[in-house]
Structures are given as structure tokens and as C-alpha cells.
Amino acid sequence: MTKKTNKIIEPKILRGTRDFLPEEMARRNLVQQKITSVFERFGYDCIDTPAIEYAETLLGKYGDEGSKQLYRFKDNGGRDIVLRFDQTVPFARVVAANYSQLPMPFKRYQISKVWRADKPAKGRYREFTQCDIDIIGTKNLLAETEIAKAMLAVFEKLGFKEFIIKINSRRLINSILDSLMVKQEDQPAVMCALDKFNKIGRAGVIEEMKLICDEKTIENILDATLLTGTNSEKVEKLEKYDIQEVKNFLRLCSQAGISETFLEFDPSLVRGLDYYTGIIYEVYVNGVDIGAVCAGGRYDDLCGLFTQEEFSGVGVAFGFDRIVVAMETLGLLNDVRLNSEVLVIYFDEETLPKSLEVWNQLQSTGIDTEIYFEPAKLQKQFAYANKKKIRFVVLCGPDEVKENAITIKNMDTGKQKTIPQSQLDSYFKGYTNL
What we know:
By secondary structure, this protein is an alpha+beta fold. It is 38% helix and 19% strand. It contains 16 helices and 16 strands.
């Protein structure tokens, strides 16, 4: 072998991004298929948007913290460009540009990559996939209720047993802050501090709020938002504020069959993005320390950034990568296989026509089948099947060709059986997952 003399480029990738090998992609594809099936069951239709947007489209839509995480650059034409930060703002742009062609209310789903210049951590990446559903063109709380029901259906479909959908209302938070005489211009910073409660704790939140409010006001804010008890008990404690939206939403959820087992009213829930105006959500999985796996809420004014028409919307983003991590942690993806269920052995040149015939026969009946490309030793071909977790190997050697038969080896058990080739289809029909 001739030794290379050219410089080898180190095969590295940016921190916070990942390559996915076939086994990982098999798990991810399965999760995506299940999520998509729920979206489509609820009547959401798929759209897609560009990975790059004009900077003015996204700048200032996510608050100061979000804007700092935008990947921003000049392209070769000198245009000010950013990578897609989320799918909600681009969706609002799409609606503003195409609303005359869309049925209203309009329900869409989108599954795409987004990019954030964030510090990587477990379940937190710079490039990751979001799965969004949105309803735009109605202010009725039935839309919020459907979103909650769809979230419940997704996590049940994925096999999660213990999870919680936390909800709150931005209108309620604004009402609390107004009643406590917090200035309008200071409210976003107060909410930003409160949004970090799970990360920095009560003491950290107090320190951040001290830059904005006096100690008495801070204590009143925390007393009003950090409540315990049932949903009804929390609502009762907040009756002096604008609580009606929360009461109506909880009533509709109950009527729609969403159990309080999965739904928790949390008055301290804020959501950090500036565009939320009403009901907001976050979903957490018990037993997995990974943060929220789904989040979103009502946004009344987002489309108004792009058109004079008024379109109120509500939606959530499922954190696909965090969901996959949570499922792997809980053992919900242990038995996922790759695509091929059967490998046809390439025994030798003389028997190759029979192997090709069997390969074609299996594929024609809808069984995911591949054929080995070289007449290698059987052990090498078996090892290939094991690496790909292929369940069955089909052998068409000289004896099988003579008898018009085939030998099937079950790679899970090691057992093998020789049957007439005419029985091949009926044999595999006994395995329901083929």
C-alpha cells in the first residue's frame, strides 16, 4: 500500500453539533415517525422554511438573552444573515406572506433543525431539531386546549408514563406585576429573572431582581408565584389577580379529558421569550434531569411584525433531541433495529442467480431485505448481519439450489431451518414486525 503524503484533515466537528450513525438515526427516525403520526391525527399539515433568514426577521424577537444566541454573519453578497433560531417567527413570516391562500385558522407542523450559540450541556446543543405545532387565526382557548391534548398524546405515544405539563398565563403574570406596581418597562427583566428559578434558585432570582425592585416587592412577587397545592387551591389564592384565563383553560382541559395527573398550574412559569402573551406551557419528564422537553404558548402580535393583518397564534416546540435523550435514559429505545430484516448470503458465483431470485422475492413481498456484495466467508457475512442487527440470514448454497429450498438462520437465537422456497413468503408472514 502506498503511504499518503498529503496532509490529513482532522475529522472534527464543532462543539454542540453531532454526527448520527445508523443505529442512532434508526432511533431518531422512530421517534419522529411517532410524533408526526400524532400531529397528523390532530389535523396539522406540514410546512418547511429556509435555514437562513434575513437578520431583521429574527433580531429582537426573542429578548436580549435570545438575541445573543443568534448565529449571525454576512454572506458573500454582504447581506445580514442569521441561522434559524426557532420555527415560530419564520412561521409568522410565512403566514404574513401567504395568509390569503391559507385556510383560517391554519394548523401546521414543522420538523427542522435550528441553531443557537448556546453553551452545550446534556440535552442542550448548538444545532438541534425541533418539532413544532401551531394554530394561527383564532383567539379561542379551544386552541390552547387542543395543543395541551396533542402534547399529552405525543408523550403517551412515545411511551412516557410520568411527565407533567406545566401551564401558566402571561396575562396573569402581568396582572401580578401591575398590582405590585412594577413598572411596565421593568417587567420583562423581572420575568427573565423569575424564568431562571430552576437554574439559579430563589437566592439567585432575588439577587437579579434587586437590580430592578426593592426587597419588599421581590418578596411579594415570589409569594404570589411560588405557590403549592392543587390547581384549584392555587387559583383560589390568586383570585384578586387576572386569573380568569387560567380558570377557563383548566375547565376546558378537564372537559377535553386531560387529567390533572398530567397538568399542573405553576404561577412561577414564565417562558423567556418576549413574544408570549397568554397561556404558556412547559413539559418535564420525571426521572430525567434534562429540563423542559416541550414548551410554547400564545402569541398575539407576532404576525403583526410582518403585516397589517391581525393573526393571533398558539403553539409549542417539542425538543426532539432532549426527548430522545430522555427516552434512552428510561430504556424506551432499547429494541430499535436498523432497516434490514433479512440478509441474503452471497454463497458463490454458481449460486448467485438463486440468491438474486430470493432477494427479489422477499423485496417484492414488502420485506426489507439486502444482499451481501461479495462471496466472502460465511462468518464474515454473519458478522455483518450482527453489526446491523439483522434478524434473519437466508442461505442459498449448492444443496439448497439442488432441492429448490432455502435455509433461514435466526440471528437472535442461532437456530436455523431449511424450507422449500415456495414457503418463503408464508414463513416470514409469521413475524408481525417484518
